[in-house]
Specification:
Molybdenum Cofactor Biosythetic Enzyme, Chain A, 2 domains, elongated
């Protein structure tokens, strides 16, 4: 499979791997609207239920598409257990390497919802009941229902601002370039819309794709040569097996539109030269 936009695909890592990113958060933010820089994001999926396979995550693909439409390129995704140290370590690794970081999961009322405490640890700040969060939740629940467990959802790290939750009211929060959100997809997506106005995108990536009725090994050499000729293009190769035959879906992505079209034409020519058939998808 070919590399990503800068020869790096979206990477799934464990929180224990050593991070190679340095610098300060927000360094990647575009400074000139007429010449926007690349704006990047990372996502931290939190929860034992994801790692055990009990719950299937559906937020990653939605995030990647939603952010891409804003000109924000998802560059890394990590999945960590409900462990304070692991969450804090992952946050500190990601927040200095990318323009934005988004977390999902772990902000509910139960004992294993420890994301807020983990973020406070990562940033070295205190945590307490947020007055506005308490007010929102108190108004949401019927008299006597806003119990101690539910009050846990109002505990917010010092210095963080609230993220509106129009679905179930328990707020997320933002601290510097990190956005902390619920894991339930419907709530998560509503929270994303609540922070849309806070996100500044950069160069948008265009894509072209085609289905080829040749096995991946037959086109690998020529495809590699095309990739070398167009370093600004990310060429992804995704094999499939249907009705007893092998084929491959090729996806080309770049913000350099002219190069993208030229590379796309080159791939078509390669397939024809090899006696195959390519269909744009």
């Amino acid at each position: 499979m070919a590399g990503g936009l800068d020869s790096k695909a979206i990477r799934f890592r464990t929180s224990r791997e050593k991070d190679k990113h340095h610098g300060r958060a927000h360094e990647n933010m575009p400074s000139d609207p007429q010449n926007p820089e690349l704006v990047t994001a990372a996502m931290l999926v939190i929860g034992d239920e994801i790692l055990s396979g009990r719950t299937q995550d559906t937020n990653v693909s939605y995030f990647a598409t939603w952010l891409g439409d804003l000109g924000i390129q998802m560059k890394e995704v990590r999945v960590v257990a409900d462990e304070e140290g692991a969450i804090a370590d992952a946050i500190n690794a990601l927040r200095f390497g990318y323009t934005y970081v988004f977390t999902t999961g772990g902000i509910g009322p139960t004992h294993d919802d420890i994301t807020a405490d983990s973020l406070a640890k990562a940033f070295g700040v205190g945590i307490d009941f947020h007055p506005e969060a308490m007010k929102i939740l108190d108004a949401h629940y019927a008299p006597g229902e806003f119990n101690e467990a539910r009050k846990r959802m109002a505990r917010i790290p010092d210095g963080a601002s609230l993220i509106d939750n129009p679905v179930s009211k328990a707020p997320g929060f933002q601290i510097e370039n990190v956005f902390v959100m619920a894991g339930i997809p419907a709530i998560n997506r509503a929270m994303l819309e609540s922070v849309r106005h806070k996100l500044v995108g950069g160069r948008k990536i265009e894509s072209r794709s085609l289905r080829v009725n040749l096995p991946e090994g037959a086109i690998a050499k020529g495809l590699g040569e095309i990739q070398d000729s167009f370093p600004s293009i990310a060429i992804g190769s995704y094999p499939y097996h249907r009705e007893g035959a092998f084929g491959v879906i090729l996806v080309l992505r770049s913000d350099a539109i002219e190069d993208l079209e030229r590379a796309f034409d080159s791939v078509f020519a390669l397939v024809n030269e090899l006696g195959g058939e390519a269909v744009a998808t």
